[in-house]
Design brief:
This protein is mainly β. Helices cover 0% and strands 50% of the residues. It is built from no helices and 11 strands. The termini are far apart. 33% of the residues are buried.
Length: 123
């Protein structure tokens, strides 16, 4: 069992930056692929980024590529999402998730989810 707690969300102006964190419980954090997803009101939850077990591979949705960077610190059981050049369309509830399958953007591939942290970008 893995419990995930996100933090770092908030209100930011367009063009600004935020860094989200997601801390995991348990001693098996390094066994999981970690993903970031987001959900805006009235929309489906969508994939944002994923980072591999050791943090040496990442991939991103086209909408955030070049602006967002995922990283992880397995010693701290924490994964991060650095978000730069934020746009109003980035406004959403952001979730981190843990899974064992690499290379997928599907929510079904992730077994554990946090409660989310709200990011609001004002234009």
């Amino acid at each position: 069992q893995v419990q995930l707690v996100e933090s770092g969300g908030g209100l930011v102006q367009a063009g600004g930056s935020l860094r989200l964190s997601c801390e995991a419980s348990g001693r098996t954090f390094s066994r999981y692929v970690m993903g970031w997803f987001r959900q805006a009101p009235g929309k489906d939850r969508e994939f944002v980024a994923a980072i591999s077990w050791r943090g040496d591979s990442t991939f991103y949705s086209d909408s955030v590529k070049g602006r967002f960077t995922a990283s992880r610190d397995n010693a701290k059981n924490t994964v991060y999402l650095q978000m730069n050049s934020l746009k109003s369309e980035d406004t959403a509830l952001y979730y981190c998730a843990a899974g064992t399958e690499w290379g997928t953007i599907s929510t079904r591939a992730y077994d554990y989810w946090g409660q989310g942290t709200q990011v609001t970008v004002s234009s």
